[in-house]
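Service request form, structural biology core

Requester: graduate student, group of Dr. S.
Request type: structure prediction, single chain
Budget code: on file
Notes: please return the result as C-alpha coordinates.

Sequence provided:
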Amino acid sequence: MNKKKRGKRNILIGGVVFLVFLLAGAGFGGYRLAWAPNFMPKETVYLYIGKEKNFDDLCRQLIDSADCSRIGSFKQLAGILKYQESIRTGRYAVSPGMSNLELLNDLRRGHQVATRLTFNNIRFKDDLAERMDDQLMLDKEELLSLLNDSAYCDSLGFTPETVMAMFIPNTYEVYWNIPADKLMQRMKREYKSFWTDVRLEKAKAINLTPVEVSVLASIVEEETAATDEYPIVAGLYLNRLHRGIPLQADPTVKFAVGDFTLQRILFEHLEIDSPYNTYKYPGLPPGPLRIPTIKGMDSVLNYMKHNYLYMCAKEDFSGRHNFAATLTEHNRNANRYRAELNRRKIR
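Core staff response, request fulfilled:
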Protein backbone atom coordinates (compact mmCIF):
# COMPACT_ATOMS: atom_id res chain seq x y z
CA MET A 1 0.00 0.00 0.00
CA ASN A 2 2.77 2.34 0.96
CA LYS A 3 4.52 1.42 -2.24
CA LYS A 4 1.48 2.45 -4.29
CA LYS A 5 1.19 5.73 -2.41
CA ARG A 6 4.83 6.52 -3.03
CA GLY A 7 4.35 5.81 -6.73
CA LYS A 8 1.38 8.16 -7.01
CA ARG A 9 3.26 10.81 -5.08
CA ASN A 10 6.25 10.51 -7.42
CA ILE A 11 3.98 10.81 -10.44
CA LEU A 12 2.36 13.91 -8.95
CA ILE A 13 5.72 15.50 -8.14
CA GLY A 14 6.97 14.69 -11.61
CA GLY A 15 3.88 16.32 -13.13
CA VAL A 16 4.34 19.42 -11.00
CA VAL A 17 8.03 19.65 -11.91
CA PHE A 18 7.17 19.25 -15.60
CA LEU A 19 4.51 21.93 -15.34
CA VAL A 20 6.93 24.27 -13.57
CA PHE A 21 9.54 23.75 -16.30
CA LEU A 22 6.87 24.17 -18.95
CA LEU A 23 5.70 27.45 -17.43
CA ALA A 24 9.26 28.60 -16.92
CA GLY A 25 10.06 27.83 -20.52
CA ALA A 26 6.96 29.65 -21.70
CA GLY A 27 7.77 32.58 -19.44
CA PHE A 28 11.32 32.76 -20.72
CA GLY A 29 10.07 32.53 -24.28
CA GLY A 30 7.57 35.27 -23.62
CA TYR A 31 10.25 37.39 -21.99
CA ARG A 32 12.58 36.99 -25.00
CA LEU A 33 9.70 37.71 -27.36
CA ALA A 34 8.41 40.87 -25.67
CA TRP A 35 10.54 42.28 -22.88
CA ALA A 36 14.16 41.21 -23.42
CA PRO A 37 16.49 43.85 -24.90
CA ASN A 38 16.61 43.32 -28.67
CA PHE A 39 18.11 46.55 -30.02
CA MET A 40 21.62 47.57 -29.03
CA PRO A 41 22.79 50.55 -31.13
CA LYS A 42 25.76 52.45 -29.71
CA GLU A 43 23.50 55.47 -29.33
CA THR A 44 19.89 56.35 -30.03
CA VAL A 45 19.03 55.96 -33.71
CA TYR A 46 15.91 56.87 -35.65
CA LEU A 47 13.53 54.94 -37.87
CA TYR A 48 11.73 56.67 -40.73
CA ILE A 49 8.40 55.29 -41.89
CA GLY A 50 7.26 57.02 -45.07
CA LYS A 51 3.96 57.19 -46.92
CA GLU A 52 4.39 53.70 -48.37
CA LYS A 53 4.38 52.23 -44.79
CA ASN A 54 6.64 49.36 -45.84
CA PHE A 55 7.09 46.83 -43.01
CA ASP A 56 10.00 45.06 -44.74
CA ASP A 57 11.83 48.38 -45.08
CA LEU A 58 11.27 49.01 -41.37
CA CYS A 59 12.81 45.62 -40.55
CA ARG A 60 15.81 46.41 -42.75
CA GLN A 61 16.32 49.66 -40.86
CA LEU A 62 16.23 47.76 -37.59
CA ILE A 63 18.92 45.35 -38.81
CA ASP A 64 21.12 47.97 -40.48
CA SER A 65 20.85 50.82 -37.98
CA ALA A 66 19.45 49.57 -34.67
CA ASP A 67 21.68 46.49 -34.24
CA CYS A 68 18.68 44.17 -33.92
CA SER A 69 19.64 40.82 -32.36
CA ARG A 70 16.50 38.83 -33.16
CA ILE A 71 14.53 40.28 -36.06
CA GLY A 72 12.40 37.12 -36.15
CA SER A 73 11.06 37.80 -32.66
CA PHE A 74 10.22 41.39 -33.62
CA LYS A 75 8.29 40.17 -36.65
CA GLN A 76 6.53 37.53 -34.53
CA LEU A 77 5.38 40.02 -31.89
CA ALA A 78 4.39 42.53 -34.59
CA GLY A 79 2.20 39.81 -36.07
CA ILE A 80 0.61 38.96 -32.71
CA LEU A 81 -0.15 42.64 -32.11
CA LYS A 82 -1.37 43.07 -35.72
CA TYR A 83 0.98 46.01 -36.16
CA GLN A 84 1.11 45.70 -39.93
CA GLU A 85 -2.57 46.59 -40.06
CA SER A 86 -2.01 49.95 -38.34
CA ILE A 87 1.43 51.23 -39.40
CA ARG A 88 1.86 54.96 -38.83
CA THR A 89 4.26 57.26 -40.63
CA GLY A 90 6.84 59.19 -38.66
CA ARG A 91 10.28 59.35 -37.12
CA TYR A 92 10.77 57.02 -34.16
CA ALA A 93 13.62 56.63 -31.69
CA VAL A 94 15.33 53.32 -30.93
CA SER A 95 17.49 53.55 -27.82
CA PRO A 96 20.09 51.01 -26.61
CA GLY A 97 18.50 48.13 -24.70
CA MET A 98 15.01 48.69 -26.09
CA SER A 99 12.70 45.68 -26.24
CA ASN A 100 10.35 44.59 -29.00
CA LEU A 101 7.30 45.55 -26.96
CA GLU A 102 8.63 49.01 -26.08
CA LEU A 103 9.37 49.79 -29.70
CA LEU A 104 6.12 48.36 -31.01
CA ASN A 105 4.13 50.33 -28.45
CA ASP A 106 5.75 53.55 -29.73
CA LEU A 107 5.17 52.56 -33.34
CA ARG A 108 1.56 51.53 -32.84
CA ARG A 109 0.66 54.65 -30.85
CA GLY A 110 2.51 57.04 -33.16
CA HIS A 111 4.85 58.23 -30.41
CA GLN A 112 7.28 60.09 -32.64
CA VAL A 113 10.40 62.07 -31.83
CA ALA A 114 10.53 65.56 -33.36
CA THR A 115 13.24 66.42 -35.86
CA ARG A 116 15.21 69.67 -36.05
CA LEU A 117 14.28 71.65 -39.14
CA THR A 118 16.72 74.29 -40.37
CA PHE A 119 16.87 76.51 -43.43
CA ASN A 120 19.00 79.48 -44.42
CA ASN A 121 20.66 81.00 -47.47
CA ILE A 122 17.50 80.42 -49.52
CA ARG A 123 16.82 82.52 -52.64
CA PHE A 124 14.02 80.88 -54.58
CA LYS A 125 10.88 78.90 -53.77
CA ASP A 126 12.36 75.85 -55.46
CA ASP A 127 15.35 76.07 -53.12
CA LEU A 128 13.09 76.29 -50.08
CA ALA A 129 10.90 73.37 -51.18
CA GLU A 130 14.01 71.30 -51.90
CA ARG A 131 15.44 72.03 -48.45
CA MET A 132 12.18 71.02 -46.78
CA ASP A 133 11.92 67.91 -48.94
CA ASP A 134 15.43 66.89 -47.82
CA GLN A 135 14.53 67.12 -44.14
CA LEU A 136 10.87 66.10 -43.98
CA MET A 137 8.50 63.51 -45.41
CA LEU A 138 6.48 66.11 -47.31
CA ASP A 139 6.63 66.28 -51.08
CA LYS A 140 8.44 69.22 -52.73
CA GLU A 141 5.70 69.74 -55.31
CA GLU A 142 3.01 69.83 -52.63
CA LEU A 143 4.76 72.65 -50.82
CA LEU A 144 5.46 74.55 -54.04
CA SER A 145 1.78 74.33 -54.93
CA LEU A 146 0.86 76.11 -51.68
CA LEU A 147 3.60 78.72 -52.08
CA ASN A 148 2.24 79.62 -55.52
CA ASP A 149 -1.47 79.47 -54.63
CA SER A 150 -2.81 83.04 -54.45
CA ALA A 151 -5.90 82.13 -52.43
CA TYR A 152 -3.94 80.04 -49.94
CA CYS A 153 -1.23 82.69 -49.50
CA ASP A 154 -3.95 85.29 -48.99
CA SER A 155 -5.44 83.17 -46.18
CA LEU A 156 -2.10 83.56 -44.39
CA GLY A 157 -1.87 87.30 -45.09
CA PHE A 158 0.62 87.11 -47.97
CA THR A 159 0.81 86.87 -51.75
CA PRO A 160 2.87 84.39 -53.82
CA GLU A 161 5.40 87.23 -54.22
CA THR A 162 5.68 88.00 -50.49
CA VAL A 163 5.10 84.58 -48.88
CA MET A 164 8.84 83.89 -48.59
CA ALA A 165 8.94 86.69 -46.00
CA MET A 166 6.87 84.44 -43.72
CA PHE A 167 9.81 82.05 -43.25
CA ILE A 168 12.12 83.18 -40.45
CA PRO A 169 15.45 81.29 -40.66
CA ASN A 170 15.99 79.41 -37.43
CA THR A 171 16.00 75.88 -36.02
CA TYR A 172 12.55 74.45 -35.36
CA GLU A 173 11.39 71.18 -33.84
CA VAL A 174 8.67 69.61 -35.98
CA TYR A 175 7.41 66.11 -36.64
CA TRP A 176 9.07 64.54 -39.67
CA ASN A 177 5.69 63.67 -41.24
CA ILE A 178 4.18 67.14 -40.85
CA PRO A 179 1.93 67.92 -43.86
CA ALA A 180 2.81 70.90 -46.07
CA ASP A 181 -0.27 72.83 -44.92
CA LYS A 182 0.57 72.31 -41.23
CA LEU A 183 4.15 73.40 -41.88
CA MET A 184 2.93 76.62 -43.48
CA GLN A 185 0.68 77.29 -40.50
CA ARG A 186 3.58 76.63 -38.12
CA MET A 187 5.77 79.10 -40.04
CA LYS A 188 3.00 81.71 -39.80
CA ARG A 189 2.93 81.28 -36.00
CA GLU A 190 6.71 81.65 -35.86
CA TYR A 191 6.45 84.76 -38.04
CA LYS A 192 3.94 86.31 -35.64
CA SER A 193 6.17 85.46 -32.69
CA PHE A 194 9.15 87.09 -34.39
CA TRP A 195 7.27 90.33 -35.01
CA THR A 196 7.09 91.49 -31.42
CA ASP A 197 5.60 94.83 -30.43
CA VAL A 198 9.10 96.27 -30.24
CA ARG A 199 9.96 95.22 -33.79
CA LEU A 200 6.58 96.41 -35.08
CA GLU A 201 7.14 99.84 -33.54
CA LYS A 202 10.58 100.10 -35.13
CA ALA A 203 9.14 99.16 -38.52
CA LYS A 204 6.42 101.77 -38.12
CA ALA A 205 9.02 104.39 -37.22
CA ILE A 206 10.75 103.92 -40.61
CA ASN A 207 7.40 103.76 -42.41
CA LEU A 208 7.74 100.12 -43.48
CA THR A 209 5.49 97.10 -43.01
CA PRO A 210 7.02 93.83 -41.71
CA VAL A 211 7.00 92.41 -45.23
CA GLU A 212 8.73 95.54 -46.57
CA VAL A 213 11.38 95.16 -43.88
CA SER A 214 11.99 91.62 -45.15
CA VAL A 215 12.19 92.85 -48.74
CA LEU A 216 14.72 95.55 -47.86
CA ALA A 217 16.71 93.14 -45.67
CA SER A 218 16.92 90.72 -48.59
CA ILE A 219 18.43 93.45 -50.78
CA VAL A 220 20.88 94.43 -48.03
CA GLU A 221 22.06 90.82 -47.64
CA GLU A 222 22.51 90.40 -51.38
CA GLU A 223 24.50 93.65 -51.55
CA THR A 224 27.17 92.70 -49.03
CA ALA A 225 28.64 89.60 -47.44
CA ALA A 226 30.08 91.72 -44.63
CA THR A 227 27.47 91.59 -41.86
CA ASP A 228 28.92 94.66 -40.17
CA GLU A 229 27.94 96.62 -43.30
CA TYR A 230 24.26 95.59 -43.03
CA PRO A 231 23.15 98.62 -40.93
CA ILE A 232 25.10 101.00 -43.21
CA VAL A 233 23.56 99.60 -46.40
CA ALA A 234 20.12 99.56 -44.78
CA GLY A 235 20.51 103.24 -43.85
CA LEU A 236 21.59 104.08 -47.39
CA TYR A 237 18.52 102.51 -48.98
CA LEU A 238 16.22 104.05 -46.39
CA ASN A 239 17.72 107.44 -47.28
CA ARG A 240 16.87 106.83 -50.93
CA LEU A 241 13.36 105.53 -50.16
CA HIS A 242 12.50 108.46 -47.93
CA ARG A 243 13.79 110.95 -50.52
CA GLY A 244 11.96 109.28 -53.39
CA ILE A 245 15.18 108.26 -55.14
CA PRO A 246 15.07 104.92 -57.03
CA LEU A 247 17.01 102.24 -55.16
CA GLN A 248 19.03 101.21 -58.24
CA ALA A 249 20.13 98.07 -56.39
CA ASP A 250 22.12 95.64 -58.52
CA PRO A 251 20.80 92.53 -56.70
CA THR A 252 17.27 93.36 -57.84
CA VAL A 253 18.50 93.30 -61.44
CA LYS A 254 20.20 89.94 -60.85
CA PHE A 255 16.92 88.63 -59.44
CA ALA A 256 15.00 89.94 -62.44
CA VAL A 257 17.51 88.28 -64.78
CA GLY A 258 17.46 85.11 -62.68
CA ASP A 259 21.25 84.97 -62.41
CA PHE A 260 23.00 85.86 -59.14
CA THR A 261 26.40 84.92 -60.56
CA LEU A 262 26.58 88.14 -62.62
CA GLN A 263 29.73 90.02 -61.69
CA ARG A 264 29.09 92.98 -63.94
CA ILE A 265 25.72 94.64 -64.52
CA LEU A 266 25.50 95.83 -68.11
CA PHE A 267 23.15 98.30 -69.81
CA GLU A 268 21.20 95.42 -71.35
CA HIS A 269 20.49 94.09 -67.86
CA LEU A 270 19.25 97.48 -66.67
CA GLU A 271 16.70 97.50 -69.49
CA ILE A 272 14.93 94.33 -68.35
CA ASP A 273 11.26 95.12 -67.81
CA SER A 274 10.53 93.59 -64.43
CA PRO A 275 8.93 95.04 -61.28
CA TYR A 276 12.01 93.74 -59.49
CA ASN A 277 14.30 95.97 -61.55
CA THR A 278 14.78 98.96 -59.22
CA TYR A 279 16.61 100.86 -61.95
CA LYS A 280 13.33 100.97 -63.88
CA TYR A 281 10.77 101.03 -61.08
CA PRO A 282 10.94 103.21 -57.95
CA GLY A 283 10.39 101.92 -54.44
CA LEU A 284 10.79 98.40 -53.16
CA PRO A 285 10.29 95.37 -55.42
CA PRO A 286 7.13 93.23 -54.96
CA GLY A 287 8.78 90.64 -52.75
CA PRO A 288 12.04 89.57 -51.11
CA LEU A 289 14.99 88.47 -53.25
CA ARG A 290 15.78 85.79 -50.70
CA ILE A 291 14.68 84.71 -47.23
CA PRO A 292 16.52 87.29 -45.09
CA THR A 293 18.18 86.35 -41.84
CA ILE A 294 17.10 87.64 -38.44
CA LYS A 295 20.33 89.68 -38.36
CA GLY A 296 19.47 91.23 -41.71
CA MET A 297 15.97 92.24 -40.63
CA ASP A 298 17.19 93.61 -37.32
CA SER A 299 19.84 95.59 -39.21
CA VAL A 300 17.06 97.32 -41.15
CA LEU A 301 15.10 98.00 -37.98
CA ASN A 302 18.25 99.30 -36.28
CA TYR A 303 19.82 100.95 -39.32
CA MET A 304 22.75 103.34 -39.11
CA LYS A 305 21.87 107.01 -39.57
CA HIS A 306 24.17 108.74 -42.08
CA ASN A 307 24.05 110.77 -45.32
CA TYR A 308 25.14 108.06 -47.75
CA LEU A 309 23.13 107.67 -50.95
CA TYR A 310 25.57 105.65 -53.03
CA MET A 311 27.66 102.52 -52.66
CA CYS A 312 30.14 100.73 -54.86
CA ALA A 313 32.11 97.53 -54.39
CA LYS A 314 35.70 98.13 -53.34
CA GLU A 315 38.23 97.66 -56.09
CA ASP A 316 40.18 95.18 -53.95
CA PHE A 317 37.34 92.65 -54.42
CA SER A 318 37.18 92.12 -50.66
CA GLY A 319 33.40 92.03 -50.80
CA ARG A 320 33.24 95.29 -48.90
CA HIS A 321 32.07 98.68 -50.18
CA ASN A 322 32.92 102.34 -50.56
CA PHE A 323 30.05 104.60 -49.52
CA ALA A 324 29.41 108.12 -50.74
CA ALA A 325 27.05 110.99 -49.98
CA THR A 326 27.50 112.74 -53.34
CA LEU A 327 27.36 111.57 -56.94
CA THR A 328 30.79 113.07 -57.64
CA GLU A 329 32.38 111.02 -54.89
CA HIS A 330 30.48 107.93 -55.99
CA ASN A 331 31.66 108.30 -59.59
CA ARG A 332 35.27 108.33 -58.43
CA ASN A 333 34.65 105.10 -56.49
CA ALA A 334 32.82 103.53 -59.44
CA ASN A 335 35.61 104.48 -61.89
CA ARG A 336 38.20 102.76 -59.73
CA TYR A 337 36.06 99.63 -59.53
CA ARG A 338 35.37 99.57 -63.30
CA ALA A 339 39.07 99.98 -64.01
CA GLU A 340 39.82 96.95 -61.89
CA LEU A 341 37.07 94.96 -63.64
CA ASN A 342 38.67 95.83 -66.96
CA ARG A 343 42.14 94.96 -65.71
CA ARG A 344 40.89 91.55 -64.59
CA LYS A 345 39.02 91.17 -67.89
CA ILE A 346 35.69 90.63 -66.16
CA ARG A 347 32.95 91.25 -68.68
